[in-house]
Design goal:
The chain has about 230 residues and is α/β, with parallel strands linked by helices. Helices cover about 40% and strands about 20% of the residues. The protein has one domain: Aldolase class I (TIM Barrel, Alpha-Beta Barrel), CATH 3.20.20. It is built from nine helices and ten strands.
Length: about 230
């Protein structure tokens, strides 16, 4: 089980996650309580173990900006939010030429979930799953991305919300995605529920930010350790 600890803002937290066995540590370059800049991250990444992915989270549509930050900050992976932009993916793939990997994020919108009564009829859930699967299949054909992260979207916030989506409904996405695409679960995960999420969704990986924090941008070491241990156990 691939595990990413996201929303790091300092060397102590990022190093701890790596020491505890995280496969990847994430840094948010978008507007957020956890936002960092390339200079800050450049002071952290050289001190991390070579095998740990350094993931930058972006909402930008500017390929030049993303590529420059990736180089300056020492990133090995960029994670794109804000919806599917095929042209951006193609430009980044050309710039990186395999040296930096790409994760595409798609969102399960929480504030548009149907009521229990309307959910019984199924149309909204079916259409949501269908739309997401179509985009994932488009990525598979494009061939520039082999990992997709499904995160919660609550209002304008597309990450770090601490709110889980409907795992039962979302299971179809994880089960039916093309084999060439690895699906990562995020959104509302924490030590207490990550085993259940893995059992219901059977993802390739899991991603957590607010669920292991003492406060926004500061990790709780005990929660980080417990999250990683529970994810591995599942």
């Amino acid at each position: 089980m691939w595990v990413k600890i996201c929303g790091n803002t300092n060397l102590e937290d990022a190093s701890l996650a790596a020491q505890l066995g995280a496969d990847a540590v994430g840094f948010v370059f978008a507007s957020s309580k956890r936002q960092v800049n390339a200079m800050q991250v450049a002071m952290i990444t050289p001190h991390l173990p070579a095998g740990v992915e350094r993931v930058g989270v972006f909402y930008s549509r500017d390929a030049e900006e993303i590529a420059q930050i990736a180089a300056d900050a020492g990133l090995t992976t960029v994670q794109l939010h804000g919806g599917l932009d095929v042209r951006l993916l193609e430009r980044l793939a050309g710039k990186f030429a395999g040296s930096v990997r790409i994760i595409q994020t798609f969102h399960w919108t929480i504030d548009e979930q149907p009521s229990p009564q309307s959910r019984e009829s199924g149309p909204y859930i079916a259409n949501s799953v269908s739309a997401l699967l179509q985009e994932i299949e488009q990525l598979a054909v494009l061939g520039t991305v082999d990992r997709v992260l499904i995160d919660s979207k609550v209002g304008a916030a597309g990450g770090g919300t601490g709110v889980a989506y409907d795992w039962s409904a979302a299971h179809a996405i994880f089960a039916s995605a093309p084999r060439s695409i690895r699906i990562i679960a995020a959104g509302g995960l924490k030590p207490q529920n990550v085993e259940q999420a893995i059992e219901q969704l059977t993802p390739w990986g899991v991603d957590v930010s607010s669920g292991v924090e003492a406060s926004p941008g500061r990790k709780n070491p005990a929660l980080v350790a417990q999250f990683i241990a529970n994810a591995r156990k599942a």
